[in-house]
Amino acid sequence: MRKEILTQYMSYVNEHGKQPASVFKFCKEFEINESEFYDEFADFSGIESAVLSDVWNESISTLQVQSFYSECSDSDKLLSVMYAYFESLKQHRSFLLLRFKDWKNPKEKMDAFKELKKQVFLYLNTLKLSETANTGVGMVDKTLEKGSNAALFSNLLFVFHYWLNDKSKGFEKTDALIEKLFLLSFELLGSKSLKKAFDLGKFLLADLK
Amino acid sequence: MNTQDNITSTKFGRAAKLVGTGAKIGGNYLKYYAKKSITGNDNKDELHASNAEDIYDSLSNLKGSALKVAQMLSMDKNVLPRAYTDKFALSQYSAPPMSAPLVIKAFKNATGKYPEEIFDSFDAKCLAAASIGQVHLARKDNKTYAVKIQYPGIADSIQSDLRLVKPVANAMFGLSEKEMKKYFEEVEEKLIEETNYDLELTRGQEITKACAHINGIFFPKYYSELSYSKVLVMDYLEGLHLKEYLLTNPTQESKNKVAQVIWDFYEFQIHTLKSIHADPHPGNFLFTADDRLGVIDFGCIKVVPEDFYLNYFPLLLPEVQENKEVIDKLMRSIEIVFPADSLEVKNELTSAFLKMTDLLSRPFRTEYFHFTQSFLDEIYQTGEEIYRIEEVKKPTQPRGSKHALYVNRTYFGIYSMMADLDATIHTEAGTWRFDLLAKHNIQSESETILA
Hints:
Chain A is mainly alpha-helical.
């Protein structure tokens, strides 16, 4: 049912260029039982959020069966997922353009990214990308880990925005951006500067006491 | 990656400076975006200006003798286009290799399949950087292939990068964009051709077929059924790059033998095919222990127009160099001298040009020639002298045919390799000499003697 509602909703938006007037009207038109709708989603923005996060999870499961993916490093894993993700998003591009084209302020539509963010964080926690762990202070480790996850997720948002406006053939430029942006991030996360910054902070804080 | 870097570090290493420029330009972009996000002010002009400044700085550092000579060979002011070609060739060497996931993605985009679906095994780690892509090893049915994969989006960025450097070029030579246009078009055309793997495939197949008879040479076979417009599949060739080869301490006899192969290969291309492999940098040549030479990468091919050929190459012949009437005619047709020039300028340019060609054509006048480092130094020195001429330093108009750009670059590359090999080889001008003399109605000296 979830998949069906998703598909119907997207095709409605693509056809009409806007959201259906209400969940009631939408269900009526596609002969869906309204309670079934609410079993899956709270409202339309829940569907939009699901489009983004479902594709994410699908990308990961397609990759997991490939031999290259299971053998490569964690940073290569994340890169592979990013490429696969934007490759799969292509099939919903018209829909996403309609919904996000006028997206000037990233915060504006953050609701739609909530679920994706959750999934991305869950995925990132399975990888070991940064040196942030093991400062010896549990709370600090947690903060650093969260910080690096948030940084990587904001990379993803940045790429998403770029992709919406990308006019290159086959969105080659988006690929190039993913490559450059993430490789730089890996380097920064891998460096010990974050850890050292915290170390300095701890030292100064102790002095102040 | 490393091997390539090492090779380029000698003769072409100067361009490392350009890489530093690349970093600075990156910095300029960061500043631009930071400023934009804070002030909301979108000042692109400022960005271009600071980029131009940084490029200019590094180009001025680059004004080594080698660059000047490349320019002197035709006496035109093509340092920049030359720096252009080098910048692109070399910035590619220093570009970070594509990550394995991107390689797989680019491969899949181009072919519609994953590498493992086509090959038995595929090494996602890059073997070498090619001019606008990178090379990977793959195996299938016990055969090893070299798979060249193009960087995504490279064709677009070439054009935008060219736009970036253009204003600097104009400023450097004090020439207007319109006047520089012919050189830029030539360079741009060549660079864009390099992104066309379909073209490389056909040209590679044609040239390797035409040159297969040359003694001691071998080429990769190109596989059209496995290749796509952004993925090129060919044989993997065994052999050492020049620098590694020299480290194996080959005998002088061996070095002479391979040098002769290079020479014969280029003689045949220039005078018979009139279409040349115009990227003779050491990374494209593979030397084997049994004195054979492998040639790869047919992405940069200069087709020499008949008209240019007939007016340019006679200048290498002593009979022509002595014939003032013919020289005057040729200097005009290759656009070194213009009818509007004063007699003084005309004479100065002509004699400087002849001095240079006299030096450069030395190998063609003897049966055997020993390419030494001091011969190269002499060329550099003459180049420096010529550079002091006012009309060369600050030309009133662009001088030199655009076709000379890649032809000269090629000769410069060959001469440098020959000097590295310290080779003594058979260089006497072949039968093309008589054909060219006949075209200009000049009697050959050797014929005179025979008569």
